[in-house]
Amino acid sequence: MATPDTAGTRHEFVVEVDDAPRLDLLVSARVGVSRSRAATLVSTGGVLVDGARERASFRAPRGARIEVVVPPTPGREVIPESLPVSVVFEDEHLIVVDKAAGMVVHPAPGNWTGTLVNALKGRGMALADGDATERQGLVHRLDKDTSGLMVVAKTDQALRVLSKAIAERRVMRRYAALCWGHLAEETVSVDRPISRDPNDRLRMAVVESGRAARTDFVRLARFASTDLLRCHLHSGRTHQIRVHLASIGHPVVGDDTYGGGGARKVVGLPPQRHFLHAAWLVFNHPVSGELLDFRSPLPDALRACLETVAELPDLIAAPNPLEYLHFYRAER
User: Fold this and answer.
1) 95 shares a domain with 144
2) I need a surface site. Which of 45, 227, 241, 294 has the fewest CB within 10 A?
3) What's the domain count of the chain?
4) Same structural domain for residues 206 and 148?
C-alpha cells in the first residue's frame, strides 16, 4: 500500500513522543504502507531502530532514529484488458463494482488474465499500489463463482482507511446464500477457526489452529429442501461462508468444493455456479466520511434458482425477491 513515491525508496524519521505505538504500526503510519507490509519489512530487516533490528512489537523511545527501506513492489505486470465490469459507484478515491460470477478477482498462477484487476486496469484506471502488483487496490475479495459487490481503492489513502475499517468490522457485508437442508434455529452463529485443509491444500477447513472466523446466519425463507439465508461476516477468511455452512451440515447449493454441488437440475442452477451473492455493502467513504449504502439484486441465474425452489407466486412476482424477504432490514 505504498504511495506512488514509496516503493523502492528509503525513509528516515525520528520518534518525537514518549508513548510511540509498536514498531509495525509506527512504520505503517509514517511511511504509508499497510500494517502487514510494515510487519514484513520489520521481520526481514527493512526497518532499523538506531541501526539495529527490532521486533514488530518493539516500542521505540523518544529520539530513536527509524530507518525504513521499502523494496520495489513484487509481482508481475498486470495486463490491462477490455472486459465488461458492472460499475455501481465511482469517484477519484474508489470504485464499487458488482462482480459477475466466474470472474477471478486478481491475477495468480492459472489466471494471469481475465480478472477484475485486469479489467479495471483496462479502463485506464489508476489503482492503489497494495502489497503486490497483482492485488492493486483490493480491499477485500470474492471467490471466483461468488457474485456481488466489491469496493476497490484507487488511492493509497483510501486503501489504508478502508482496510482498517474492514479489520475493525466497520464495513457491513451481507451475503445471500441458499443452503441445503434447514438450520436448527432461525438465527445461527458459527464461530470456528479456518485454515488450509491439511488433507487438501486447494480447500479450506475448520482447523483448531486456524485463524479466528465468525459468521452469523439468519434464515429469511424455508423451502422444501433448502433455506435462504442472510450471512453476516465478522471476519474475512477465504471461503468463510462456504466452509462454515458445510461445517454444520448445510453446504451452499451448487458448491462443488464443499459438498453442495449435487441436484443442480432439481433447483435450476447452471453448472459451475453456487448460490452465494454479496448483496449488501455499507461503509463510510474513506475521505468524506459519507455513509455509502450499496445493494445488488440477485443475478438472473440465482433468481431463476430461487423461483424454482420457492414455488411462491408473490415472491416470484416481486421486482427484487431480497427486498420482498426483508434482506435489507438492518435489525434482522
Assistant:
1) yes
2) 45
3) 3
4) no
Show the domain range for 27: 9-70
Rounded to whole angstroms, the Cα distance separating 116 from 108 reads 12
Q: Which strand ranges, in their side-by-side order, compose the sheet holding 65-70?
A: 9-14, 65-70, 47-49
Nearest to 230, CA basis, from 193, 175, 184, 160: 175
* C-alpha to C-alpha distances, 286 to 116, 141, 185, 279, 291, nearest whole angstrom: 22, 18, 37, 21, 10
Contact 41, 28 (CB under 8 A): no
Task: Give the cell for residue 205.
Answer: 477447513
In a domain, 212, yes or no: yes
- Give the integer Cα–Cα distance in Å for 192 and 277: 22
Q: Is residue 1 part of a domain?
A: no
**Residue 19 catalytic?**
no
Annotated catalytic residue within 24, 143, 156, 255? 143
pTM above 0.85, yes or no: no
At 261-275, the pLDDT tens digits run 988 888 999 988 999
Question: For 146-163, what is each residue's pLDDT tens digit?
Answer: 999 999 999 989 999 999
